[in-house]
Design goal:
The chain is α+β, with helices and mostly antiparallel strands. The protein has one helix and four strands, in the order H-E-E-E-E. 19% of the residues are buried.
Length: 84
């Protein structure tokens, strides 16, 4: 779940026009809470909100839900670096 949230968070940060040509590198994962198990057949819904975005970093709040019940949550920090 954490990897899926991190991948989605990277996509969300790179959708901004000013971040074109950059890479989102995962820097830190904080305040992780694994609240319930997810089993094969569950539909996992991910929600990511960018809470702070600057030229070289981005902070996001992430939720993973199954049937509207929170399965996991975390805060993630990314460094935004030039791809070239």
């Amino acid at each position: 779940m954490l990897e899926a949230m991190a991948q989605l968070a990277g996509v969300v940060l790179l959708r901004r026009m000013e971040n074109t040509g950059k890479l989102a590198v995962l820097w830190a994962i904080d305040k992780v809470k694994l609240r319930r198990s997810v089993v094969p057949g569950d539909q996992l819904r991910l929600e990511v909100e960018a809470t702070k975005v600057r030229d070289t970093m981005g902070r996001v709040e992430c939720l993973a839900k199954v049937n509207e019940h929170v399965a996991a949550e975390a805060q993630m920090v990314f460094t935004l670096v030039d791809a070239g």
